Amino acid sequence: MDFSRLNINANTVALFQERFGESYTKANEILKDQTGIIDFFEKETDFIQLKETLEINHAFITENKIEYGDFQTNQQLSKAVCSSLATKNINPCILIEPTCGKGSFILSALQTFPSLGNIYGVEIQESYLWELKFSLLDYFLQEPRANKPEIRLFHCNVFDFDFEQIRMQIKNRELLVIGNPPWVTNSTLSSINSNNLPAKSNFKKQKGIDAITGKGNFDIGEFIALKMLDLFAKENGHFAFLIKNSVIKNIVYEQKRNKYPISDIEKHTINAQKEFGAAVDASLLVCKFNTIPELTAKEYDFYTSKHQTTLGWVKDKFASDTERYAQFSDFDGICPFVWRQGIKHDCSKVMELDKVDSHFRNALGEEFELEENLVYGLLKSSDLKGNRIEKSRKYTIVTQQKIGQETQFVLEKLPKTKSYLENHKEYSLKRKSSIYNGKPMFSIFGVGDYSFKPYKVAISGLYKQTKFTLVEPAESILMLDDTCYFIGFDRLSDAIITQFLLDKPDTQEFIASFMFTDAKRAITKDLLMRIDLKKIIEQTNYADLKELNISLPQWELYVSRLKKQTKEQLNLFA
């Protein structure tokens, strides 16, 4: 360990110089008596190296924070968290912090919980552990009469550490598992070749394509939280983690399947920008161990303790606001239309175009001519702002009408388009997604008969507003990119009525009751497919559409088709 990288308090320097001499064993005995830390120096070499560097006080140099998902908890917040737990009559005998960092929670717990008898901290960054040791020493030098639990600190990757050795020592004593685990995903750490990762496993038991695409990606903090629940949920005690809101949602969602023996589940929202300088939604998750499993979590403001909402399961449905959901749960079912995602090509530099007079221009600044047979107007999420849209500002080349279709035969008839794509084929070859493996050159995804429907009802998948836009092209068919979701129609009247039903205030309230606005993607296909328009139309009259210029026959045709129960229900208008 390079001790020159640490800021060491002057009182600590004096203590080492005056009392420890040359004996590493004696130093550990004195430090155990002074701080409660077992094996302050695990190796004699560390003791010798520290003594050699104590004459100079060097500034601490920060490690790669990204690699560890490192947002250290400030002392003010950790004190507030511990004080909040104390008001709930939480007073542990044993404290475990699986990613203790510089030890803010351990230091705050010492000042808050008088019954602490044992503290266990695990941390991958050795320099952080030494900072914690010296902070503990400084604390006890200032507070010599303070309670001194037995403290064991382990320099280890949390994913490799054997927590079973701690669990065996609990013996029905009151436990608190507390901490602030990393706020990053496995894919983020993999991208920088980090070693701070668990062994590869499909711990959420995703199936098929979900396991190799976005749904297979998971949050490191979630992995650690679930590991702690697996190990300790049957013990007497509590759990308190500062963690991303998306993780809390996942834990409560999976609680229906996992049925951890936890209750009194609470989510206390914090200002992560203020506390950590992090542009992420996060909260303190608190729950009680060894109880009858609960499937909901009450949400509070951490700073005011004001109750906001309750998220969780209502019978067999998951909601972001259970009270609001109860009012509109009748609308929950299966949408009679299949919501589709737009075109995915992963080659925006050459596949997304601007039109300049009779020419096209790509993102590389090149201008060229194309046959317009495969060129369509393209709408992106940022275009879906108004009630209706007729024109696009971008264009794209649609090489296929269905996934996997051969492209060469079509391109042979279009020499300009073929030449353009051939001259830029390196962009297609560089696409990293495995979905393109074994597919024809210049393949795209998110394309089918539905893409070529003239009328569409669309919504952005990137924003939080549930604004539905009617796509009514003035000229040729308009495509949408893969950040958008849509339903395609042959008849304009069907699209107008569908948009009206989706924009109804009750429908909007229903969507809000189970949409998580703090999710990375608040609007998903799964969410949209829960909007059962058959049930919404039962509470809608033709007279409600008086300003939409829809004839009674058009309305009656729509209603009869929508209510028709057949095995082809999901494809009625697709």
What report would you give on this structure?
- By secondary structure, this protein is α/β, with parallel strands linked by helices.
- The chain folds into 3 domains: 3-53, no CATH class; 67-314, Rossmann fold, CATH 3.40.50; 340-571, no CATH class.
- The chain has 22 helices and 21 strands.
- A 10-stranded mixed sheet has the order 3-2-1-4-5-7-6-8-9-10, with helices on both faces.
- Helix 5 (75-86) packs across helix 6.
- The longest helix is centred in the first third of the chain and has 17 residues, at 126-142.
- The termini are far apart.
Task: Present the secondary structure layout.
Layout: H1 10-19, H2 24-35, H3 44-53, H4 65-68, H5 75-86, E1 94-97, H6 104-112, E2 118-123, H7 126-142, E3 150-155, H8 164-167, E4 175-179, H9 186-191, H10 220-232, E5 237-244, H11 245-258, E6 263-270, H12 272-276, E7 282-288, E8 296-301, E9 307-314, E10 317-319, H13 322-328, E11 340-341, H14 348-351, E12 352-356, E13 359-361, E14 367-368, E15 375-379, E16 388-389, E17 394-397, H15 408-412, H16 415-423, H17 425-429, E18 455-460, E19 469-471, E20 478-480, E21 484-489, H18 492-503, H19 505-514, H20 525-528, H21 533-537, H22 552-563
